Amino acid sequence: MSFFSEKRSPKGIFTAINSLNKFPQQLLAKLCQDVVDALQYKGSVPQVSHYQIQLEKNSIDLGKNEVQSTINVLFFLYRDASKISNLDQKQFLEILQNQTGITNQAGKVLATIWEREKENLPSLTMPNVGKLIDFKWKVGVTFSSSISENLVTPFVTVNISVSNTDELVQTHSFEMSVPEFKEFARNLKEINQLLEVI
């Protein structure tokens, strides 16, 4: 049983594990929980700057790239572990120690979070939900209606074309108010941050 093969191991994983090993136990537990929360869509991607400040308070000097690599490796490990059915805490810890060079102390922190949260992690295998073919949007303004003559209300119209599993393309349209669109854009920004981490 393993998280990754030699061909699939992420670039820099061992350097990232070395950085992870430097984290104090409590701070590592908090970071692990933040990563798991992000994977469960309960929270946003952990912020590098926050953890750099916490490390400095503990007299640990890790650069921005080292902290980012630590976050990346945690996403990788928990995401890949969720693909292995019935993986218990002991097996999780053994795999970590055999494949990554993680210290016993840090490994136990990751394994404890795993045991507590594994049932809540979504299966991260990709379902076949179709493919995004086209995404178009435009801004419009409503000037008047039969009820009110002076509305001047901006809105955003979105058209999404999706190819389903049978290769049929369907187009879906919807409108959003400006506040709804701003929330939508904020969510896309979070998705982008998560993709950069992964």
TrEMBL record:
Which superkingdom heads the taxonomic lineage of this protein's source?
Eukaryota
Cite the COMM domain residue spans from the record: 131-198
Q: Give one Pfam family.
A: COMM_domain
**Similarity field:** Belongs to the COMM domain-containing protein 6 family.
Listed name of the protein: COMM domain-containing protein 6
